[in-house]
């Protein structure tokens, strides 16, 4: 279902597109705008009643609705005042340039020239004032560096729909793994670039930080993620708790109360003397262990009890090493 805002934005782009492509097929236009053919027909019926103030004969946009519905062909006339797409606003140019400059940092040498040309074209289209504002804002974008050969191989795999073999470092387990993956897309979050792919080792969708890929090799096999391999919804952040994750209960002393605000929690309860008792989902127990050890005596895992005991023992062994 198309929202009113989406439809208005589409209509403003649809008129100049149809003027440049007279006789376009309804199905082709629908594919171009990412909607169903029946939505394009509905849009045309709205445009039929749009035009210059006065709404007299000759003021309205002329569309052959019968041809569109019957033959699937679109003809449009009397729309010269919308011959060009709307000019980008400064905030729109900022968003696009930010994305392009971020993309530039993770593309291989073969694609970087194309990105540079797109940036230059967009800066010209935005105008001098908007380009200056964008330059100041985008200068703060930082992306963790990726080895050029890794970025090049990943981009070739995505463009050519090829499977890859990765040698991947997993710091949380202090190990390096070998796995075949079917690339799906690149994702940039918090200055880090991730390859989202179907991992044939885990048999699930996984995110791989590009700066942790030690080696990448293109395979002579197509990238074929299974039907259930859908991209993750990252609208609420890169990493979200899952029902399959371990549920842990942690007591936080007052100096560690910030943890309840910083990390996603299932529940938060006030405890004695200003402490908190929180429950949270944990995908990697090694991560929780590092967090608890970093907090020192300000945090304790209550459940699962065996995990809490292991972390406490690790802390005691660490103290022995320093003769405490």
Give the low-confidence spans. Answer: none
Q: Which percent range describes the beta-strand content?
A: 15-25%
The tally of domains stands at: 4
Count of helix runs: 10
- The backbone outline, from C-alpha atoms, is elongated
- The pLDDT mean sits at 79
Order of helices and strands: HEHHEHEEHHHEEEEEEHEEHEH
Q: Walk across the major sheet and give the strand order.
A: 8-7-6-5-9
Backbone CA Rg: 27 Å
Distance between the termini: 65 Å
The computed structural class is alpha+beta
Note down, in words, how this protein is organized.
The protein is built from ten helices and 13 strands. The chain has 324 residues and is an alpha+beta fold. A hairpin with a 5-residue loop joins strand 11 (267-270) and strand 12. The longest helix is centred in the middle third of the chain and has 30 residues, at 109-138. The model has no long low-confidence stretch (mean pLDDT 79).
Structural key phrases:
single chain; 324 residues; alpha+beta; SH3 type barrels; 5-stranded antiparallel beta sheet; 4-stranded antiparallel beta sheet; 10 helices; 13 strands; elongated
């Amino acid at each position: 279902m198309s929202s009113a805002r989406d439809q208005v934005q589409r209509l403003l782009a649809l008129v100049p597109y149809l003027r440049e492509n007279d006789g376009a097929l309804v199905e082709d236009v629908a594919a171009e705008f990412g909607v169903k053919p029946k939505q394009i027909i509905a849009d045309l019926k709205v445009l039929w009643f749009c035009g210059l103030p006065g709404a007299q004969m000759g003021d309205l946009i002329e569309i052959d609705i019968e041809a569109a519905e019957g033959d699937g062909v679109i003809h449009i006339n009397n729309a010269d005042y919308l011959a060009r797409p709307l000019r980008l606003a400064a905030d729109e140019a900022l968003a696009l340039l930010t994305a392009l400059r971020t993309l530039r940092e993770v593309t291989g040498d073969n694609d970087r020239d194309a990105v540079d040309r797109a940036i230059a074209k967009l800066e010209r289209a935005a105008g001098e004032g908007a380009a200056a504002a964008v330059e100041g804002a985008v200068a703060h974008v930082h992306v963790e560096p990726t080895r050029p050969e890794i970025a090049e191989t990943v981009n070739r795999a995505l463009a050519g729909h090829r499977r890859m073999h990765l040698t991947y470092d997993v710091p949380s387990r202090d190990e390096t793994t070998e796995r075949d993956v079917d690339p799906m897309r690149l994702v940039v979050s918090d200055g880090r670039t991730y390859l989202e792919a179907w991992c044939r080792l885990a048999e699930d969708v996984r995110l791989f930080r590009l700066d942790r890929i030690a080696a990448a090799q293109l395979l002579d096999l197509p990238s074929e993620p299974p039907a259930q391999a859908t991209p993750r919804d990252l609208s609420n952040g890169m990493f979200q708790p899952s029902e399959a994750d371990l549920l842990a209960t942690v007591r936080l002393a007052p100096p560690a109360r910030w943890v309840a605000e910083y990390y996603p929690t299932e529940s938060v309860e006030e405890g004695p003397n200003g402490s908190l008792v929180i429950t949270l989902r944990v995908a990697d127990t090694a991560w929780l262990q590092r967090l608890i050890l970093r907090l020192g005596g300000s945090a304790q895992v209550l459940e699962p009890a065996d995990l809490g005991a292991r972390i406490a023992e690790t802390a005691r062994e660490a103290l022995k090493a320093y003769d405490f």
